[in-house]
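Morning run. Coffee first, then this:
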Amino acid sequence: MTEETKPANENAAAKKQPEPSKNPESKKAAASKQKPSGFFRALKIMLLLCLITVISVGCWLGWAYWQAQIVSGDNSQQQLASLQDSVDSMQQQFKLDQKRQSLQLQNIKQLQQTISNLQLRSNSHGQRLAELGSTSRSDWLIAEAVYLTRLANQRLQTERSIKNPLALLASVDVILQELDDPELTPARSALAADITALRLAGEVDAEGIFLELSSVVNSIGQLSMRSTPTEPEESSRLPPGPLVETQSENSDSAIAEFAKKLSKLIRVQRRSQPIEPMLQPEEEVIVRQNLRLMLEQAQSGLLREQQVIYSQSISKAQSWLMLYFQLNPSAQVISERLAELAKVQVVQQLPQINSSLNAIETVVAMRRNRLSEGTQQELQR
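And here it is:
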């Protein structure tokens, strides 16, 4: 219902009601009833206007807040982007700082290693100076003994001879005897064992055998080659005297005489070896050169201590000497000497002489330990 229809209905209701009495009091009461209805109507209108105003203001405030939120969101995104850039730059800076720190740590480690090396060198130099300051004549003699023992081991392996190592170990024994220190008794015992082993090993005179083979090689040109055997010429002449044959001799005596003469013309010899044909001059040169090469090969086997090559070369040279050369006294002497040389042992048996060196080095190490302990005690004091 509209507001215009309301007064009409109210008027109709007023008409239906009984007419009020004409009493003044009743008029006052009716007037008082009409006043509140108009007041409420105005109040409703005012409330409606206030509500519309409040709603309008709320919508406007909401729209303004929404716009403000949009602007603040954009600002927040910009701030977030700037913060992200800042974080990235900080991370890069952090990585650079880590690299610099790692480089610094490496430099520190290198410096520490250098310092430790310098400290070790300084300590070794100080220890060496202390040793030199406290070195006595006995220390120098022991150092000389160590050097000679090492030299004896080296000479034994390089020269393959016991002569020089035996002389060097004898010198070491003289030095240890001169020191007269009970601490060196085990070293002298080991030294005596090494000297005995060298003496029992024996000596191969490789130099003498080499020179003897060289002399045989030089004498090959003076030997005469074997020639074919010549038969002694038998005189086929009849004994002097007149050859007078008489017709009175019978046939038996003629046959007997013929057989006797024929037996003087024919001679039979027995040979145990086949007859070799005569050599031509160029073949003689080849035979002599081959004989020289066999003896030189034996010399090479001697120097390399190859027993099989040495013995076989000499044996083959001896067989060629007997086969192609005349067995005159000089060739016979050479053949007998080659047979003796073929039996010689050319491999030098080398013993181990390390025990004396180890014993002397042990004594030197013990002295150094005592010296270092004494030096440390003095430094601690």
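Confidence is low (pLDDT under 50) at residues 1-10, 12-22, 228-249. Good start to the day.
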